[in-house]
Structure formats: structure tokens, C-alpha cells
């Protein structure tokens, strides 16, 4: 059974409204990402509501010699969405398009946020199999940059995509799936915005289930010694190591027959807002002003978190609020390399003058077949390093990157890294396949920018 929902029609009034929202020249609003490390001043901006309006805006910009980029909510740390040409904003390109229970899919507009998607799915008694740990991104931005959670068997958001609608550089609107335009679909599931503008996405979904979450502090040595066992025994395992300490916080999420036992409102507020955001943000600010205090702060932060267990619908377990702003680098390693790399990172921090107030996050994913997926062709572990906003991060990230690349790491496409097309072409067996699709769909690089020139080449 397919349930369809109305979306904004591609009427003349809608197109007029979209054009009216695109002031040109000095009056065009600037754009800034969430972390504040990337800014752009587009020549003009538009908020289309349909694929037809997107196609019209792309064709007009191309005729005027402008590059085109679509921005989500700015949660990438890279300049993937930055442009001095036309910026497409997502707020009117959202909403539920269809629910197909027989096929097990849901189709939504590309500007739908993950928060809106998850709440809509829950209202229909449905859920994604896996997701990342925040819900602020648009679905198209999250998919296009390789957003992932942690999972023994269930992979990234892009791996859950079953179809997409893509506006290409010549104004064509392509429907893409494994059966329709399959070469484009294979590449565009994780396309970095290089192939066109995604206007709708179809996700695989399943009946909503319950997850039992078990969060527990553990010594780092225990976690590293038992890492393979912890991954094998849990559907979703991750841990956070606090640099300058020997402690970790572990998270084990597994399906449960119920009953639901969600966090109490007061307890959730105390743990997730007061401790993980309010107190943690204040301590990070102290550490930025007085770096020598960071090791003591790290020990205090690690001790402040306690064990807890709760059972709830998936998105309320997978995700949590993240209000403390930071910069991040994340690398995807062959899973067997994760613990050796983490031990090297720990040693590098110990022998240096680095002071790191943010925990190091370790997650996993199964191998997938998406050409530019960081988990392409191999079971993967992710190691993410962070620095509080305004704290010098270059030396730490450079040291981490040297370790990760030595272990065959692939950088997360939406997070800070220094790799270029030469390096990435060797890291991805299907890199040339992706760039060939790009050459066919966008030979004039209408959707190009400086970031894509670096990571994909000319």
C-alpha cells in the first residue's frame, strides 16, 4: 500500500515566490556553517520548493556563468557547500512525499531534516535501521557527505537510500534507483553535491522497534582488549575515550522486546543538558583559556558521567543534543586497525604538549558497495577527534591524520582533512567510476567549488 502526501506544487506562483526570495548582489545574505569555520558570500540565493523550481534556478545560474551549490543546515566542517555563485537553500524543499508499506520505503523532500524525518516515521509506526547521533542535518546533506552511526550489521544513511531525484546541470530531472539510471544512483547516494542537486530521497524503513541502551564507564584498557568482542556481541557499540585519562564511556544499543522504559524527563535533562552540554561547555571554555587545566578537566568530565540503562524508540536512543560547538576530523579505518591506531594516538598526545578537552569517539560500520563510501569494501571502524571551537586544532588534527592515513584511513567527507584527489583516488577502488559519472553529468562543473576541486580534481 502506498500513501501519498501533498507537496508544494510547481506552480507559477511557487516559482515567482522562489525567485522573489533570491536577492542578488550586496543584499544577498551570507552563509556560515554550524561550527563557524566556513563562510560564503553567494551572488544570489534562492529557496525553491520543487524539482522544477530547482531546475529553473540551475539553468538560469548556468546561463549567467554562476556556480551552483545546495546548502543544508551547515553541519559539515568542510566547504563542500560554499559558493560565490547561486546558493540553493533547503527550507522549502521538504516534507513527506509517500509511504510505501509494501516496499518498505518512505520518500521525503531533500530539505527535510532528520529530526522531521524521524518524527514523521515514528508517527507512521516506522523507523530507519540506523542513524547518526544528531538530527539537525537535512536528509540530502547527511546522505551526500556520508553521515553514519555505529552498527555491527546496519550501515550509513546512504546505504539505506533506495531511490533519489536529481536535478542535473542541464536542467534534467532524473529519477534514480537500482533499476532506473543505476550508474547515477550508485554514485549519487554519496555524491558530495558534485553530480547535481538532490530534490527527494527514498529510504528503506521498517516497523518501529525498541532499543535498549546501556551506557557505562569502562577503563580504556578493558575496552581496547575486548573491542572485537564488544562489537560482535552488540548491534550498536561505540565508546568515547577522554584524553589525558584512562577512562571511557561505552554505549551498547540492542533491540528489545520491551516494554519501553524511556529516560525520565528530569534525569535526561540533568545528564544530556546540564552535564553533557552545560557543564561540559563551561569546562571546555575554561580549558581554552587555561590549557594547563585541561588534563584535570578531562578527569573531572570523565568522572561526571555515570551508568544508565533505558529502552525507547530508535531515534530517541541513537541521537542526543549537541550544543557545544567544536571542530572535528574523522577517519574510517579497516576495523582491525582501529585499536592500534588509537593506541598510537594516545601515545602521540602523551608525548606532546597537546591539551585535548574533547573525547575521542570510536564507532563501527559494515562494508558497503557505495563508490565513495568510507566503508566501501571493508568492515570499518571510525575514529573521530574534536577540538572545542576557538581552540587551536591544527597540530592535534595533523598528528591524528598522519596516524590514520598510515593505517589506510579514509577521511570523512564532511569533516576536516587535508587529503586531495591524488590520495583519494588511491584510497577508493571506484573513484574513477565516480568521476566518470561526474564528467558525464556536469562537464562544465556547474556544481563545482574549491573543495570539490581539491578532493575530486578537475
Q: What is the average of the pLDDT values?
A: 92
The total of beta strands comes to 21
The span between the termini is 45 Å
Unreliable residue stretches: 6-26
Approximate shape: globular
Percentage of residues in helical conformation: 25-40%
Q: Quickly give the structural class.
A: alpha+beta
Main sheet specs: 8 strands, antiparallel
Number of helices: 15
Please give the order of strands in the largest beta sheet: 17-14-16-15-19-20-18-21
Nearest-angstrom radius of gyration?
Answer: 22 Å
Sheet-strand content, in percent, reads 15-25%
Description:
Mean pLDDT is 92; it is low at 6-26. This protein is of the alpha+beta class. A hairpin with a 6-residue loop joins β2 (31-32) and β3. The chain has helices spanning 12-20, 51-63, 114-123, 139-144, 182-188, 220-225, 227-233, 265-289, 294-304, 314-318, 338-350, 394-406, 421-427, 431-441, 450-456; strands at residues 2-4, 31-32, 39-40, 44-46, 68-70, 86-88, 96-100, 105-109, 126-127, 161-167, 173-177, 197-204, 206-207, 210-219, 236-241, 247-256, 308-312, 326-334, 360-365, 380-388, 410-411. The strands form five sheets. It has an eight-stranded antiparallel β-sheet with strand order 17-14-16-15-19-20-18-21. Strands 1-7-8-12-10-11 form a six-stranded antiparallel β-sheet. The chain is 33% helix and 23% strand. α8 packs antiparallel against α9 and α13 packs across α15.
Amino acid at each position: 500500500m502506498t500513501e501519498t502526501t501533498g507537496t508544494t506544487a510547481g506552480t507559477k506562483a511557487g516559482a515567482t515566490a522562489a525567485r522573489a526570495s533570491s536577492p542578488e548582489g550586496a543584499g544577498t545574505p551570507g552563509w556560515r556553517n554550524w561550527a563557524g569555520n566556513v563562510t560564503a558570500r553567494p551572488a544570489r540565493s534562492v529557496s525553491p520548493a520543487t524539482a522544477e523550481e530547482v531546475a529553473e534556478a540551475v539553468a538560469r545560474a548556468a546561463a549567467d556563468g554562476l556556480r551552483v551549490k545546495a546548502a543544508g543546515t551547515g553541519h559539515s566542517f568542510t566547504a563542500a557547500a560554499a559558493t560565490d555563485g547561486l546558493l540553493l537553500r533547503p527550507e522549502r524543499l521538504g516534507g513527506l512525499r509517500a509511504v510505501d508499506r509494501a516496499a518498505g520505503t518512505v520518500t521525503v523532500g531533500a530539505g527535510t531534516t532528520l529530526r522531521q524525518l524521524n518524527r514523521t516515521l515514528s508517527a507512521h509506526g516506522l523507523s530507519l535501521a540506523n542513524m547518526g547521533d544528531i538530527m539537525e542535518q537535512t536528509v540530502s546533506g547527511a546522505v551526500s557527505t556520508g553521515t553514519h552511526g555505529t552498527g555491527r550489521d546496519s550501515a550509513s544513511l546512504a546505504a539505506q537510500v533506495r531511490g533519489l531525484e536529481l536535478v542535473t546541470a542541464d536542467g534534467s530531472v532524473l529519477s534514480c534507483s537500482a533499476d532506473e539510471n543505476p550508474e547515477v544512483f550508485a554514485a549519487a547516494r554519496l555524491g558530495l553535491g558534485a553530480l547535481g542537486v538532490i530534490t527527494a530521497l527514498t529510504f528503506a524503513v521498517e516497523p518501529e522497534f525498541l532499543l535498549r541502551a546501556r551506557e557505562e564507564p569502562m577503563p580504556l584498557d578493558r575496552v581496547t582488549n575486548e573491542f572485537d568482542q564488544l562489537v560482535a556481541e552488540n548491534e550498536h557499540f561505540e565508546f568515547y575515550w577522554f584524553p589525558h585519562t584512562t577512562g571511557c564511556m561505552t554505549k551498547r544499543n540492542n533491540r528489545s522486546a520491551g516494554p519501553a522504559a524511556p529516560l525520565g524527563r528530569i534525569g535526561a535533562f540533568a545528564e544530556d543538558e546540564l552535564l553533557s552540554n552545560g557543564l561540559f561547555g563551561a569546562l571546555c571554555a575554561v580549558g581554552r583559556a587555561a590549557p594547563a587545566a585541561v588534563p584535570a578537566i578531562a578527569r573531572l568530565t570523565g568522572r561526571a558521567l555515570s551508568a544508565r540503562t533505558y529502552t525507547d524508540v530508535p531515534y530517541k536512543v541513537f541521537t542526543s543534543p549537541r550544543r557545544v560547538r567544536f571542530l572535528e576530523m574523522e577517519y574510517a579505518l579497516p576495523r582491525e586497525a582501529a585499536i592500534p591506531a588509537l593506541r598510537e594516538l594516545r601515545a602521540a598526545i602523551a608525548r606532546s604538549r597537546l591539551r585535548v578537552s574533547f573525547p575521542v569517539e570510536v564507532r563501527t560500520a559494515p562494508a558497503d558497495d557505495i563508490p565513495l563510501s568510507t566503508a566501501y569494501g571493508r568492515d570499518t571502524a571510525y575514529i573521530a577527534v574534536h577540538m572545542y571551537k576557538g581552540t587551536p586544532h591544527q597540530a592535534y588534527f595533523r598528528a591524528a591524520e598522519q596516524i590514520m592515513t598510515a593505517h589506510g584511513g579514509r577521511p570523512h567527507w564532511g569533516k576536516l582533512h587535508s587529503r586531495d584527489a591524488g590520495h583519494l583516488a588511491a584510497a577508493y577502488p571506484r573513484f574513477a567510476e565516480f568521476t566518470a559519472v561526474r564528467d558525464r553529468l556536469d562537464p562544465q562543473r556547474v556544481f563545482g567549488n574549491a573543495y570539490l576541486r581539491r578532493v575530486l580534481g578537475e
